[in-house]
Write a structure and sequence with these properties.
By secondary structure, the chain is an alpha+beta fold. The chain contains twelve helices and 17 strands. The longest helix is centred in the last third of the chain and has 27 residues. It starts with a strand and ends with a helix.
Length: 444
């Protein structure tokens, strides 16, 4: 008997199925490969790593993704357990043997007596008699399922070139040059951070932008159109030197308190999370290579020493505006029997995808057993990531996000950046253990 169905055998789906089975819940895991191929996968294995073999930093005392690793290990994550078993030398990062890792995940799922692996495409919304369902189909969701989700949620589109703007840590912005103000003092009058450019800096910036190295598209991405409301900044610049000055960098309605001369152009940053620790560069969606982004964007006055929580990107993606459509336990508000997990929820990265799968599995297991568990504390990496996509992000600018310290509630104590990160990591693991304790006691 199946208690829960999981659609999608990637990192998130495999992790969700594992968490369900570990809790004593019978689950059917649906994976369309090899019968239905994707443009990026090459094998029939579950949890196949497509873009990279790196799970990024494994530093659990000073890096947010390393902290997420540590939390997932404590929550008995299948993905982290097998990544550790198949790791390859990568300095302080966790990188894996791709084939060995995916093969091991597949074998673990196939061995578990509570998991049934069903090969075949789920072509539309799951039938109602399936009951509880977790959709974890990732950025390459099949066209038929994506269309069904689109019709259910009312989204205009789910698959397009996802042009992502960079995000800066507020504390690294130089307010000797930047200032808070809305154009014409609208709204609260100080809703944006403004960075002024004079004519010389603006022209140098445009020239550097036009000649910078850009990422190349995969063959399977080349036929996907741009989302016209989110054109990359370099594409706008190619339309003319003054295009940006009359677009997102227009200087009108602003007064620089640091300098009496009217700025030639202004880069604006808009608050990106409820905590006010992260700000995104308005209109700066880009396909520039990451090294070029750091170099170019630090040409902007006020951002010379900026640190980035996320750099810009451009790729074909399928994701839901989780902030609008999902509740705090990852249920679709319009159809609560459906949960979503992984990259389709608007998280970015292998580890983040698996982490949301872990949470979806635990939430669904509690429901199946007639119980309830609270979301993890906001002070943990799991809780901060979940809160960002379901409650903390701005719904009208929602874009995929990696885990980072800007998503965590700040500490009250004043301390250096390195000490603060270490303290946030210690707080997170302490609070996570308290959250995990009841489920561990039940398992015993």
């Amino acid at each position: 008997m199946t208690d829960v169905h999981v659609v999608g055998g990637g990192l998130a789906g495999a992790e969700a199925a594992w968490q369900l089975a570990k809790a004593g819940v019978c689950v059917t895991l649906h994976e369309m490969r090899p019968g239905q191929a994707t443009a990026a996968h090459h094998t029939a294995d579950l949890a196949e790593l497509v873009c990279s073999n790196s799970f990024r930093s494994d530093d659990a005392t000073g890096n947010a993704v390393g902290l997420l690793h540590a939390e997932m290990r404590r929550a008995d994550s299948l993905i982290l357990k097998l990544a550790d078993c198949h790791r390859v030398p990568a300095g302080s990062a966790l990188a894996v043997d791709r084939e060995g890792f995916a093969s091991a995940v597949t074998a673990a799922i196939e061995r578990d007596p509570r998991i049934t692996l069903a090969r075949g495409e789920v072509k539309g919304l799951p039938p109602k008699d399936w009951g509880s369902v977790i959709v974890a189909t990732g950025p390459l969701t099949s066209a038929s399922l994506a269309k069904a989700i689109q019709e259910l949620t009312g989204e205009d589109a789910l698959a397009f070139f996802d042009a992502i703007a960079p995000i800066v840590y507020r504390e690294t912005i130089d307010f000797e040059k930047a200032w808070f103000q809305s154009r014409y003092d609208k709204g609260d009058g100080a809703d944006y951070i403004n960075c002024p450019l004079d004519r010389v800096v603006y022209q140098a910036f445009i020239e550097a932008l036009l000649t910078a190295d850009k990422t190349e598209f995969h063959d399977w991405e080349k036929t996907t159109p741009y989302f016209e409301g989110c054109l990359p900044i370099e594409v706008m610049a190619e339309r003319g030197v003054e295009t940006l000055r009359f677009g997102p960098l227009k200087p009108v309605g602003l007064t620089n308190p640091h300098h009496p001369e009217k700025p030639y152009a202004v880069v604006q940053l808009r608050q990106d999370n409820a905590l006010g620790t992260l700000y995104n560069l308005v209109g700066f969606q880009t396909k520039l290579k990451h090294g070029e982004q750091t170099r170019l964007f630090r040409m902007i006055p006020g951002l010379e020493t900026a640190e980035f929580a996320r750099l810009g990107g451009l790729h074909r993606n399928t994701f839901l505006n989780a902030r609008k459509h999902l509740d705090a336990r990852l249920r679709l508000k319009r159809a609560p029997h459906l949960r979503f997990a992984g990259q389709i929820t608007g998280v970015e990265g292998y580890v983040e995808s698996a982490a949301i799968g872990l949470l979806a599995g635990r939430f669904a297991a509690a429901d199946a057993k007639g119980a309830s568990i609270a979301p993890p504390p906001l002070t943990t990496a799991l809780g901060a990531l979940l809160n960002h996509i379901t409650e903390g992000a701005a719904a009208d600018t929602f874009q995929p996000m990696n885990v980072n310290f800007g998503l965590f509630p700040p500490l009250n104590e004043k301390m250096g950046r390195k000490e603060r990160k270490a303290a946030m990591c210690a707080r997170a693991l302490h609070d996570l253990d308290a959250w995990l304790a009841p489920s561990l006691a039940a398992a015993e």
